[in-house]
Amino acid sequence: MIENSSTTPKTLPQPNPKTKRISMMTRPRLILRTVLGGLTLVTLYSLLTLNTANLKLSEAFKSLGTNLHSMFLQPSVGQDSWNLLLTALTRSVSLAMLTTLLGALFAFFIAVGAARNLSPTWLANTIKAVMAFIRSIPTILWVLIYSVTMGLGANAAVVGLTFHSIAYLVKAYSESIEETSSDTIEALKASGVGFWPIVFQAILPSIIPALLSWTFIRFEINFANAVAVGAAAGADDIGYYLFMSGSFYSNFHEVGLIVYLLLGVAVILELVSMRLRGHYLQKN
Amino acid sequence: MLKVTGLDKTYGHHKHSLKDVNFTAQPGEVTAIIGPSGAGKTTILRSVNQLIRDDGGQILLDDVDIRQANKKQLRQIRHHIGMIFQNYNLISPLTAIENVLHGRLGAKSTLAGMLGLYSTDEKSEALTLLQEVGLQDYAYQRCDQLSGGQQQRVGIARALMQHPKMILCDEPIASLDPKSTRIVMDILRRLAKEKQLIILINLHQIDVAREYADHIVGINSGAIVFEGPNQDIDAATLQNIYRQPETAVTDNAN
């Protein structure tokens, strides 16, 4: 260790004889309040000068009420069958599951390269920059970009969703890896253990709860994306039927049913993730 | 036998951390390195298994110079040097026995190591070692549920699992209460005698060093100021070891 150099204690600054008034208005607070005040003014101004044209607000709200009523209180399968809708829903879930699993697998190995405590700085920074670039472009756009080369359909959806999932999970995973204590890694290094055994035997067990919860969040995001992608890329999943019933057939009963189905899946996903996390965390 | 000669280490451009450090440590003995904070105790210990790269000298373990080893040889040498730490450095979500088994990872192929494949013999050896440090009832407890003294004993069992020639102990009792300190030090002394291990140990507590060490290396400002059997230490030597570093820098500049 480095020796402690002799440091002479610094003399404390003498208290100012004149008492100074303490202002609560620090500079960051001033900026925050000015911005919020400005936004409030803009909002009020635009509300007051809103051009409603011929729209009658009371009728518009009444029509909204009717639509919501037919959507959520009278859901039905509409022109499609239960069988068709459930198959499409399963397809969406499978799409989300496949892309999350593929993404998680690739992301873990890339994240090892992107973690500053395991990899050389230049490599970690390069990977992080590339992943940040991929993330900054929305998933749907990636699906559309891939559909140019692969054609519209499920293939482009899988590749596009996986691509964006990898970029997202690499960030989450590499940050989890960076949080593991360097001491425990050093202990195994000191006993002559190689790089990959350390990754799998020391780092992985320490970060499994974090990995699980990030992967599950990504699963939920991918499910939402899969629905949207279904409509955009024609992957023939539940999103496609949602789009058709809403925009093409204007069948709000079916829109309502599909929304309920999606909600059900979201609730089930949440329950499963809670149980899984509980299983891995209960011993803490 | 561990023989260190002419070990040098400089941090940055001008700070001499170690200056011409020479000492030996014998199998079957507890060798303690004592000295004030920042004297270079940790640097010495970590140079011995090259966790810190030094700038010059020789570190011979059974006549093999660790400093000359390439990456692969270094891993093999390190596999036979156990190490325990002030903060135990166990993988805390894993059970005690899993941590002990980690001592075998250095002897495995990359794939077997990644998958954590251990033979039945290795598993029963791990259990025996846990029994040896008095933790047979805690084998399947998560390590973050164990007390500090128990975690340190798991650390010792992990080091023994490496079939070491030497165990390096970096401030092993700095975070322990007096009772756990006694248990841990008793185990280390017993291991040195029974298994003829070299035990090299950094200590802050002079009284513990006086009680347990066979051989003592006193260090001040990166230079050896005393090396010899425990009984040769007197009050004047101690004062010399622990004198203020400010004066020591000029005194020791040979």
From TrEMBL, chain A:
The chain crosses the membrane at residues 30-48, 93-115, 152-173, 194-217, 223-243, 255-274. It comes from the Bacteria. Its main location: membrane. Residues 89-273 form the ABC transmembrane type-1 domain. It is found in: Cell membrane. It is a multi-pass membrane protein. One of its GO terms (cellular component) is plasma membrane. SUPFAM superfamilies: MetI-like. Keywords: Cell membrane, Membrane, Transmembrane, Transmembrane helix, Transport. One of its GO terms (biological process) is transmembrane transport. Gene3D superfamilies: MetI-like. Residues 1-20 are annotated as: Disordered. InterPro entries: MetI-like, MetI-like_sf. The keyword Transmembrane helix applies. The keyword Ribonucleoprotein does not apply. Residues 1-13 have a biased composition (Polar residues). Belongs to the binding-protein-dependent transport system permease family. This is Phosphonates abc transporter, permease protein.
UniProtKB/TrEMBL annotation, chain B:
GO terms for cellular component: membrane. Residues 2-246 form the ABC transporter domain. Coiled coil: none annotated. Keywords: ATP-binding, Cell membrane, Membrane, Nucleotide-binding, Phosphonate transport, Translocase, Transport. The keyword Cell membrane applies. InterPro entries: AAA+_ATPase, ABC_transporter-like_ATP-bd, ABC_transporter-like_CS, ABC_transpr_PhnC, MetN_ABC_transporter-like, P-loop_NTPase. The keyword ATP-binding applies. GO terms for molecular function: ABC-type phosphonate transporter activity; ATP binding; ATP hydrolysis activity. Transmembrane segments: none annotated. This is Phosphonate ABC transporter ATP-binding protein. It comes from Lactiplantibacillus fabifermentans DSM 21115.
